[in-house]
Amino acid sequence: MNTKIKKINLNHSFIFFFGANIISILLFKYSNLNISTILCLLLILIIGVSHGSLDHIKGKKLLELFNFKSTYIFYIAYVLISVAVIATWMLFPSITLFLFLMIASYHFGKEDTQFLINDKSYFTQMLYFFKGFLIILAPLYFHFQETIAIFKLLLIDNEMFYLSLNFIETNKIIQIGIICSTLSSIFLFFKNFEIKKFVIFLDYFSILVLNHYLSPLVAFTIYFCFLHSIRHSVTLAIELDPNSITNGFGLFVKKALPLTILTGVFSFIALYLLNNSYDLDSAILKIIFIGLASLTFPHILLEYFLEKNEK
Asked: Total structural domains in the chain?
């Protein structure tokens, strides 16, 4: 099964690389084709969020490992963590955003690469973090002011936070971070060397190209939906049916549909409420990033505890 996942993900990286280049150049050349924020929200709700919509199945598996019979414990814990993240963001937005960006960096680096690497050492985990950190650094490097504007919309009004960002920009720290991310990709490529691991650089250049040509939100949406989420969804589909990827994907869609729809319903309720106080684009940005944070924390915690206890 691992060989099948690797083969599919290798082909996916090639397709995504060429697709990202073509889409980026077209959207850059023909500005009238620009993707709206509402389209970004729909893509994230339909494709992006769905890759975590089987967490209830993984939750049941985790409960079985701890000999819990009632599945309500998982649902209650998952919802409470999500609500706690939103509440913490309201109270301490700068700290929560920082933690979210750090955790997301590690999550992106690991999920996008671990199908190539059979190593769980601390050094490899650090490489995952720096590789995924490019997702955060690239928009800051290519569109610093636009990225800062998004942070401000996410309730970040801490003056020290922006002074720190200006210090980072002035002292070339973003460039140093990108160099570290580049080195991490090189280390991962040469670690237990296989020529097929060249796809690490395809993903690397895809992210740079997207962020060079497109706005931070559009670049993130394309990466999150069509690289990160699809790659994770393919893995889940193969786990559901190792013998048929088509049938496995069908099973994945059926099992993911209820929670995907539920997330969409709550998102549009939140959009309706926020639109009374903010313009549509600002309300959408809040839902996308604060909403993703509220789902990412319990999702990563579940993956961590399941992986740790399955050993």
From this structure: 1
- Mean pLDDT across 183-193: 89
User: What's the pLDDT score for residue 218?
Assistant: 93
- Which two structure tokens, joined as six digits, stand for 124? 């490899």
Q: 87 Cβ partners below 8 Å, 6+ apart?
A: none
What residue ranges in the chain does DSSP mark as E strands? none
Distance from chain centroid for Cα 221: 9
Give the up-direction half-sphere exposure of residue 137: CA atoms within 13 A in the CB hemisphere.
Answer: 23
Q: Is the pLDDT of residue 103 over 60?
A: yes
- The residue behind tokens 């893995």 is 235
Name the percent of the chain in helix, strand, coil, to the closest 5.
Answer: 85, 0, 15
- 36-39's contacts with Cβ under 8 Å and 24+ in sequence apart are 37/217, 37/280, 37/281, 37/284, 37/285, 38/280, 38/284
Tens digits of per-residue pLDDT, 118-144? 788 889 999 999 999 999 999 999 999
Mean pLDDT over each residue of the chain, to the nearest integer: 87
The position carrying tokens 């250049």 is 205
Give the whole-angstrom CA distance, residue 50 versus residue 58. Answer: 14
Provide the 8-state DSSP code for 155: T
176 lies in which domain range?
Answer: 2-310
200 CB contacts (<8 Å, ≥6 apart)? 113, 116, 131, 185, 188, 189
